[in-house]
Amino acid sequence: MSDESLMESAQLQVVQPGSRASFRRRIIDTMRSVVGAPGAFVCFGTQDVRAYADSTRVVDGQPSPIRAADGVRLTAAFGFDAKSVAATQRRAYLADELYPESERMRLPYFAEHAVGDQMTQALLLFLHEGGVLFGIAGLERRASDPPFTNEEAQKLERLAPFCVAGARAQLAYDELTREAAALRALGKIKGTLFIVDRDRQAVVWAIDRERGVDWEQDVLPIEKEIIQATEQSIGARAKNEALPTPPRLPDGTVMGVARIDGDPVFGGARCAVLRVEPTEKANNPVLEGLSRREREIARLLVAGYSGVNVAAISGLSENTVRTYVRRLYLKVGVSNRADLVRKLVSPDPKSSGPVSQIAPPPDSSLVAGDDTLD
């Protein structure tokens, strides 16, 4: 088969739909079909903090996992600035063009893999378009192999637009299939959805149709709380009982949970989907007339925080918080936190659901007596 035929075949192969893992493998296969190399890898995703771990690597035709990937950013692993790379038109580079070999071998990816596998040569392909970086792929050769050439870099450059098109299509496909899986489990797509891998104890996907999700701002800071809330909610549902206090998520209240076990969309893992809605809604008539500080304290109380924590988070003294709480209860027309939860989560008295059965939280002096942090 001629070089041109090989290129056309590779370009068509990389845009075929399929699972995320199969897409990564297709990227590797297409790169190796146009430029021979014993080693290849691809790290895929638009989130810098997650893309390095979402990867596939092949050495001598055998899968070889990316080592020490947890918690490592893609940009740090390969030593580049995402904005600078995505601002250029070029995508394929000989590794020596980017950094001296001595510097490259100190970077996390090459320090973990190149020395042990003797892969001292690399040809890198940055998957970017329109200022968005979709990941990085690469080919590797040993010192005893012929060096990569500019001509081979040009071949990957020709392949790059199809890889990027495939990446865009794969991301869209992933979102649709994951959202469909959540819909099958919950029957409703509203608020923010979090998919939790219960075995890995990690949040693996999140979506919010109205405002979008920034992984670093909306997920990472509260990942442990999301996982804890998921396990608490599943445990309570299994026992057919209400939680004694709302699961503690700073930005909302858990409104639903469902198990998703064995779904191929999530690699057959033991997962669960958690649905969270903001406690403070713009159209909630209960919140009308409250000051910004009163709204903040109401949100923290409904999220289940103790009086001490409300004071610490809001930067106020406990006495000041007591004053705000008394004023808040007076304006809303309630006398304790349990009633506040019911009124804010289900302002319509005809509405019903598990959240309306929440009992006073047991984590502070609010359990008994005047529920004003006394």
Layout of SSEs?
Layout: H1 3-13, H2 20-34, E1 39-44, H3 48-51, E2 55-59, E3 62-63, H4 74-78, H5 82-86, E4 92-94, H6 95-98, H7 101-104, H8 108-117, E5 121-129, E6 132-141, H9 150-186, E7 192-197, E8 202-208, H10 215-219, H11 223-238, E9 253-261, E10 270-277, H12 292-302, H13 307-314, H14 318-332, H15 337-345
Antiparallel strand pairs: 1-2, 1-6, 2-3, 4-5, 5-6, 7-8, 7-10, 9-10
Description of the structure:
This protein has 374 residues and is an alpha+beta fold. The protein folds into three domains: 3-175, GAF domain (Beta-Lactamase), CATH 3.30.450; 188-278; 280-374, Orthogonal Bundle (Arc Repressor Mutant, subunit A), CATH 1.10.10. The chain has helices at residues 3-13, 20-34, 48-51, 74-78, 82-86, 95-98, 101-104, 108-117, 150-186, 215-219, 223-238, 292-302, 307-314, 318-332, 337-345, and strands spanning 39-44, 55-59, 62-63, 92-94, 121-129, 132-141, 192-197, 202-208, 253-261, 270-277. The chain has a six-stranded antiparallel beta sheet with strand order 3-2-1-6-5-4. A hairpin with an 8-residue loop joins strand 9 and strand 10 (270-277). Mean pLDDT is 81; it is low at 347-372.
